[in-house]
Task: structure prediction
Amino acid sequence: MAENPRSAGFATGVLLPSAALIIAGLLLWQLRHLLLLGFAAALLAIAFSSLAKIIDERSGIGWYLSLLVVVVAVISGVAGFSSLLGAQVTGEITQLARRAPDLAISIGNWLGLEDPWRWLEQQARRVFRDMSLLQGISGVSSVVYSTLIETLLVVAGGIYLAARPAVYRGGFLRLLPPNWRSRGASATSEVARALRIWLLGQFLAMIAVGVLTTLGLFALGIPSAIALGFLAGLLEFVPYVGPVISAVPALAVGLAESPTKAALVFALYFAIQQAEGLFIAPMIQRKAVDLPPALAVFAIIAFGIILGPMGVVLAAPLTVLSVVLVKVLWLEETQHNGDRPDRVSDRKPASETGR
Result:
């Protein structure tokens, strides 16, 4: 019995590509955590490359030596911070951890919770349940070890990507169909530019928020001011959600002192966030990409639901990536084809053009 050519063409042209897309989608979903680690490494590579480019242009020592200077400087900076303030921050964090049960109980009583410490334990288990890559080990040590391993992977990946960015970019573009490569090159360049500016702005915001919070808590006489300021600066990387999370332990410590201290701590955090929103955030939005607050908040929630805790941490740069890709690959193409909304009203109906 002869095979129907139409059925064979349908199977080859529709079913096989559809099955391949479904399999690829399922594979990417299973590897989503690894892909997030790769995206974090790419962010680090952009930061390293930006600094290395400045050094190379001003000194002329070559790309690899410039990158080596950047890596050594970053490692030295982290080591210097750890030696100067690491013990202080660690001690204050330990002190906060020891006071956590009492703080949780006092806040729970204030909020009307029957067993606040048990409620916090349940929420912590839910948050960290899917965070580890090492599924065979359980407990807190699993999270610590896997986080350390993942951090080392991100740093190593960032260095390798920064060492030869053109090679990896060219390899990615060669995976695209020939007629897509020009737009792909434009999109990758625009994404790298936007993320570079966003990273610079976030770095400045993190330093400013961390320093101002520490000084403000010192002035208010709040215990563990350095640890709380360090936490505020670190969580500033996650817009809107991070500052709220960082304020919780500070409010808890202030409430343990007195309701007046808690009110002053709230006013301090609110004032710092308003100042950050007035001076630093506009610079990021003007030069990188304008992210409306509602879009940023819902993006953080969406990425958190889909990708877990790491999705929350990387939600802002992922949103920048998504907005730039939509702008370059869709909106600019639509405008190039003359389908802008302001042109729609100028088109005459077919009945008029046919006269």
Summary: Residues 33-126+143-336 form one domain. Residues 130-139, 340-355 have pLDDT under 50 and may be disordered. The chain is about 85% helix and 0% strand.
